[in-house]
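User: Teach me something about this protein's shape.
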Amino acid sequence: MTVDPARRRVVLAAAAALPLAAVSGCQGLGVLGTPPPAPPDVVSLQDAIAAEKLMVTRYATALRSAGSWPAAAAQVLEPLHSEHQAHLAQLQSRLIVPSGSAAGVSPSAHAPAPPAVPTAAAAAVAFLMAAEQAAATALLDRVTDAPAALAQLFASISASEATHVPVLNRAGQAAT
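Assistant: First, the predicted structure itself:
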């Protein structure tokens, strides 16, 4: 009886793999354990991205209400919203996520839900001013622990957000 050489190779390969499967307990990829946590600079970048996404959302929400505001107050929001979108793009360009990875940027599970943006012009502008100041401070606090290139980006965005405060202040005065 003649045995097909291809079939013989398959049987030999299966026989060779059987002891390896038995030793590993057939646990599959679980044997490798959980992946290590993200490095601190990656976590800081993910937090900055989540905060900038929140700021973009806040401006988008305010812009939806701005149709009923005085024109001088409403016109200020669109350029600031665009700047935040540019900040977000710059931050996201620094985050390298391996293909097939589920490591996205999501708000922390223990973070409280952000407060809603008021619909009245003066209240919304005041809300955005406080949010801008808090965002600028938070980014500046991240600078000391970040690698040089990331620290430079954080400082630049922080400075930009700090300059939004007086611009919004003028818009708030126009809204009253």
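Now, about its shape. The CA atoms of residues 128 and 168 lie 8 Å apart. The mean pLDDT is 83. If you'd like, I can walk through any region in more detail.
User: That's plenty for now, thanks!
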